[in-house]
Amino acid sequence: MESPRSPEAEIGHRVEDLxxxxxxxxxxxxxxxxCFEDIPVASFPRTHPxxxxxxxxxxxxxxxxxxxxxxxxxxxxxxxxxxxxxxxWMDKYIGIVEFAGIxxxxxxxSDAAVNGTVGSGPGSPVSSLVSRLGSxxxxxxxxxxxxxxxxxxxxxxxxxxxxxxxxxTSSEFYKNTKVGDISGSFRxxxxxxxxxxxxxxxxLLLLSKYRMKSLPVVEVGGDKxxxxxxxxxxxHMLAECVGLxxxxxxxxxxxxxxxLPVMKPSKLVKxxxxxxNT
Length: 278
Prior knowledge:
Blueprint: H1 7-21, H2 28-37, E1 55-56, H3 61-70, E2 75-79, H4 89-92, E3 93-98, H5 99-114, H6 125-133, E4 137-140, E5 146-149, H7 155-170, H8 172-176, H9 179-182, E6 194-195, H10 200-208, E7 214-218, E8 225-230, H11 231-239, H12 245-251, E9 269-270
Parallel strand pairs: 1-2, 5-9, 6-7
Antiparallel strand pairs: 2-3, 4-5, 7-8
């Protein structure tokens, strides 16, 4: 008896069926685009079948990170706690928050405090954060790559590297700032969303060519997020397609041959942290 297929594998077999009946004169790329164009994003399996994890806009950054960590997700939509229950999704949500976004926002605030562009008087949360970060800075190498550095490149570097994130997360700034106050710093209001009638091709283009990390799925005129499709969930889906003819046509290619977006060396951030043997 054949074992039941996973929802991801079901999509792979659906693409397989479309692949076999596609116009023979089409190139492999055109055939694959045609297949994905015929599948709506409503067919994509839910990452969280029970519900979409939301962050209330009055949650602190610390509470936000705790929710993300507990649910093992990297981002989540921010729900406006002041919006009425019957509000549309456009009014109910104010953005998407990401782990990386929180870290970058804290760093930008500490940098602004150093430059005197935000309130940083003695005893202020920002001033306290900056003083505890010590001499941590970014520097650009001759190759254009960003690295972390300190005024002293030995013991002080190890100290800053080892306690850097602990310093960020123990600051009052991190504990007291509301996630709703920073959401506008990263996403337009509220976020770019897919409609349930949109196709897999649109979804894949946004996640790859346009480098979106996650895409909420909504109904036109609806009041909630139906699903959230992430880069990692798409990779998981493709992993379930190994062995299917349409996938093998691409699965044997090198990454450099697939035309995926390439990160430029100047956009990479590298930190130097001393490794301590225990």
